[in-house]
C-alpha cells in the first residue's frame, strides 16, 4: 500500500509540473503550428478565395466596386469616409505573401456567417484583414471587413521571449514557478504520507487556488479577480497567435495543509 501511494504521489505531482511545462515549451516554436493551421483554413473554400478577391478589390481604391460587392444591409452613411481612411493604410502593391491565420463560423439571427482572417505581407508593413462572408446570401455578398496594420508579422509579435523583459515579468514568472513547485510538493506529501486524515479532500483543496491574477506577457498588463479560483493555482496559457498568459491563485489549500500537518498525520 505504501508503494502504491508513492507511485501515485510521483505520477500526480510530476503530472502537475509537466502539464504546465508542456504548455510553455509546446508553444515556443509556433512555426509548425502556424503552417498546420494555415493549411486547415486554406481548405475553407469558397470563403477564403472570396476574402482574397475582396481584399484585392479594396486595393484598387474603387469605392463603388467595393460597395457593389457588399451587402447593403450592413453599409452605413459613413461608408465612403471609412474607405478613404482604409486607403491611407492599404498598399496597392502586390503582397509578398498571403497567409490564412484564423477563421470563425457563427450563426446569428438565423444566418450563417464565416469570418476569415488573412495576413498580408508588404514591403513596409503587415496587414491583417478579417473578411466576413454570408454563404446563405444568394449573391454571396460580403457582410463586413476589418483591417489592421502592423510593423511585424502576427507570429513575430506574439512570440514568447524570455530575454529583454522588465523586472516585473521575471518576478511574476518566478512566483508562478515557485507556486507550482510548492503545490506539486504539497500534493506529493499529501498522497505519500501515511495516516493523512481526509486525504482525498485535501488533494482537491491543494489543487484549487483562491483568487486569480492574470498577466499578459506581451503587453505587461495585469488583471485581478479576488472572487475567482484557479485550478491548478498556477496556470500558463500560450496558444498560436496569442501572447503568454500567466495565471496565479493563492494556494490556500496547500498552505492550510501544512498549517495542520501535525494534526492531520497524528496517529
Structure notes:
This protein starts with a helix and ends with a helix. Helix 1 runs antiparallel to helix 7, helix 7 (167-192) packs antiparallel against helix 8 and helix 8 crosses helix 9 (252-259). A hairpin with an 8-residue loop joins strand 3 (126-133) and strand 4. It is elongated, with a radius of gyration of 26 Å. The mean pLDDT is 85. A four-stranded antiparallel β-sheet has the order 1-2-3-4. A four-stranded antiparallel β-sheet has the order 6-5-8-7. Helix content is 44%, strand content 25%. It is α+β, with helices and mostly antiparallel strands and 267 residues long.
Structure characteristics:
transmembrane, elongated, 267 residues, 10 helices, membrane, 4-stranded antiparallel sheet, transmembrane helix
